[in-house]
Amino acid sequence: MPQTGHQYDQQPQAARQTPQAHEGRQITQDRQYQRPRPDLTARLNAWHARLAAANPAADLEAGEKAGARLIIPGSPEWPTQLDQLGPGRPLGLWLHGSADLRFSCLKSVAVVGARAATSYGNHIAAEFGVGLSEAGWTVVSGGAYGVDGAAHRGALAADSPTVAVLACGADVCYPAGHDTLFAAVRDQGVVVSECPPGVHPTRARFLIRNRLIAALSRGTVVVEAALRSGALNTATHALSLNRHLAAVPGPITSGMSAGCHRLLRERKAICVTSPEEMIDLVGVIGDDLARQARAPAVPRDKLNEPTRKVLDAIPTRGGAGPASIAVAAGVSLDAALSALGGLAAAGYIERATNGWRLRKESASYRKAPDSAFLEPPSTPEPAPLDDPPSPEDADPPHEMAPATWEDYR
Amino acid sequence: MPQTGHQYDQQPQAARQTPQAHEGRQITQDRQYQRPRPDLTARLNAWHARLAAANPAADLEAGEKAGARLIIPGSPEWPTQLDQLGPGRPLGLWLHGSADLRFSCLKSVAVVGARAATSYGNHIAAEFGVGLSEAGWTVVSGGAYGVDGAAHRGALAADSPTVAVLACGADVCYPAGHDTLFAAVRDQGVVVSECPPGVHPTRARFLIRNRLIAALSRGTVVVEAALRSGALNTATHALSLNRHLAAVPGPITSGMSAGCHRLLRERKAICVTSPEEMIDLVGVIGDDLARQARAPAVPRDKLNEPTRKVLDAIPTRGGAGPASIAVAAGVSLDAALSALGGLAAAGYIERATNGWRLRKESASYRKAPDSAFLEPPSTPEPAPLDDPPSPEDADPPHEMAPATWEDYR
């Protein structure tokens, strides 16, 4: 059933040939002025031999016995997005599980990544599994160890159907350690394979399977991938199909994120850091927009510009009179006097023996009064924050520096 | 000396105004059909008051006493790339240190990031400091705690000049904990400030300083930045100046990488994961190309396609005869027999009682023979690797899965 000879599937494999192999072909090309034609007779004979070994009746019986069903293009459950694979479209799919494949894949995202995932990758995959499922998106993955398994588990934990596309028969449990996971997927989602029952996975079948993961979903997110990873093969399929491709960044010290970073660096993938951002990518324009990540507002944000200038000009130690504060702030004396009154009322500053200084002792501010000098807060007051950072302050230990300090450099 | 009123510098600040402030201005605009004009008289008076407090002669004396020198546009040491700031170009710069600023900044990269950097950020900043310096690039940064300090230290460790651009007078040590660092920078590189000696840093001066960091260097790399970070202000300046902007990704679970990820997500910055990739960005086209990251080749890469197909079709357990292997591999019996001979000679497979099976016991292969079936290795044989992974193999524990396994999904 797998169409090993199809050109669409051969592309990634060809790209991974060694320079020697490429050189060898080059020489042949130079000699013949064209790529050598495949020996069609030999190929036909190979297929003939394979045909003789095929036993469709036994396959159907084995499938029925295992509880799987076979769908073909035109079946009500057939996901029509697979038609985009052109001649590489599977001839049929074996399904095993309670969920309807077509319905499940209407809104679906492929979450793929390394088998040998780090704990970071597993954590992120599970978070994406939960987050996408809770937002009504089906998680499609390959049922492998690592990222795939974590993504499926996340989806199952969110009581959502999930689709596992296998490189072996739908009744074969590969990897064997995932037998309970696959049982849960069959119970709540569906296990998919284009191989007949009883077929074991091979390298080629994994690569061919990857095109189905990409083709079933609206977009693919690579959670973790080494430089040489099957997940990057899925990513290539997603790009070939003009589906959205996203990658999750990770530490540059981790080899398991190197593949993701290469996708980002080459601008093949969009950087996503949360399930919401992934949905922003694959969802409906406008409806599924992710909120832009924002740092929390600090009370200082509510001050108007001259008041902020005056606040910046007030010393931490000692004290300064209104005139010198006005000079340092670059505002008029009247403006400075007005701002000083507002700032004192809001608890930012206090009187010193020789003028004004920043108030240090209070850990929280009183609510800013609705004055002309302080913008009235229209949103609920944010949680009390530390003192406004002051550059003339003693140097804070940098592990303890408050987040707002960053605002300062 | 800092030009607080210049429009170029006001942009980022305006963008960070609260929605309320923005709304307030909107109302004013609607009423007047234009932005309210600044009260020029008041501003002039404020500048007059400041002018009265200025004492250039004392500044020059203090600078000379501290060992600093003043350069102005036209001085031999003036870095002409600052002219791109237009009217925002500094009127002059105070320099303190042994290095020549103009020469140091001919090939320079700004390494910026969070003060409250994580150990990851500090590590990466130091690595970039060392890597850039060893490749002949000067590291420009702000001398702050965290990423800035680590980048300077990395450059100093590589015996390279480094440029610290301060928001206070060149003789003021802010942060105070960096006094030994600044002494080392003065010794080997140069400390730069546009503030006269004795001036203390303020919020506004940090933001104004950031434009100099961006303008002095050919490109800026943001190592770690929270969503609200001064480093992002520097990034904005770099973009305004059409300089290269890069960001280092990090764990999405780290708030200190959120700013970097936003830059990547919005495609404002290029993803860089090593100093070489940064140099690829800012360097000479062709000369400074970074090697594309590649996973190591495995012996299997050297097999030609039919041989690879045959290898994939050989079972781990039991054994299979040449005819059934040929059917499974989809090659002719002759081709299968030839490939089996080569694979056996290369140590990939062995004879079983009923045919052939994968060889499991050997941890390394013999050198592949130069046969027609196996591409002759033209490069030195890579280090011995584990057995070629087999899908029918017992499931390997996923922490221990070899890197080549990933190739398999």
Automatic annotation (TrEMBL), chains A, B:
Coiled coil: none annotated. Residues 377-388 have a biased composition (Pro residues). Residues 1-37, 366-409 are annotated as: Disordered. Gene3D superfamilies: 3.40.50.450. SUPFAM superfamilies: MCP/YpsA-like. One of its GO terms (biological process) is DNA-mediated transformation. InterPro entries: DprA, DrpA_SLOG. Residues 10-21 have a biased composition (Low complexity). Residues 70-281 form the Smf/DprA SLOG domain. Belongs to the DprA/Smf family. NCBIfam families: dprA. This is DNA-protecting protein DprA.
